[in-house]
Amino acid sequence: MSDNSDQMVQERPAWLIPLIVAAGIAVFSAAFAYYYFGPTPSELLGLAPRASESSEKVDMMIGDSQFLVPSNFTRYPLQRVGGTQNEIDLHALLPELAPYSIERREAFEDNTSNAMVVHIKIHLAKKLLPASRRFDEIYSRHLASRVPAPGPTGLQRYDFSENSGYRDQDLFVDERGAAQPLLLLCFRETVIIFSPNCTRTFQINDTVALTYRYKRTQMERWETIDRAITALVESFIVANETGDISTDEGGSDITVNPATADPQLNEGTTPQ
């Protein structure tokens, strides 16, 4: 009788194949659920916007300036770690620049043309030209005319030429009093721009700049909004030994409550 030990057939347990199939289904279901419902890589890294209700202050350095910013004004978890940052993104609600809370969540997420949310970015001022040079060296080359038309409440409006990359925007300028003009770029409402914004960028000191944007429908109150945002950001800056905070393009005379960092708006305030 020959030795057939190497050719013996070994039976698999009856439960093995169903177990493999069930495990495969479980893995596929978990991957499917994670893909559609789990956090994205950006969310895991703190790069996706996620508002906070905490009023704990974040200590950070941008350029040569130290900031103490309440967390409920911040947008990104990664920026809440503090330390040296290139920029920090903030948001607040008009008219009093209220910070985020769960009760205000819907208003903060609103992107309609009448939304009350303001987005603010404090960032390094690298290579940022003064406003007067931006007007003369950049914007003026694309204007339809160097002669402005009257704009809202003291602003001068410039139209861009139709063959310009700025053709869907208007440039509003205020040259009253400040060392540098105020430049406000506002998109027009078009078939593809249903909720246009107005944006301003300017330096607040030698190393730090400020950019903010809000809906164009709020532009009639541009002056109050500008002063309030400037005052709010200045309230976050840790003053130097003399207590002075310098601004490159005009200061603010709005009173800020240091306990809440909320500027006290005065609708009757006029520029000096």
How does this model look, in words?
By secondary structure, this protein is an alpha+beta fold. The protein has two domains: 13-42; 49-263, no CATH class. It is 19% helix and 24% strand. The chain has helices at 16-37, 41-44, 105-109, 131-137, 222-236, and strands at residues 57-62, 65-70, 83-84, 87-93, 117-124, 149-150, 156-159, 169-174, 182-187, 197-203, 208-215, 256-257, 262-263. The strands form three sheets. It has an eight-stranded antiparallel sheet. The longest helix is centred in the first third of the chain and has 22 residues, at 16-37. The protein starts with 15 loop residues before the first helix and ends in a 9-residue tail after the last strand. 25% of the residues are buried.
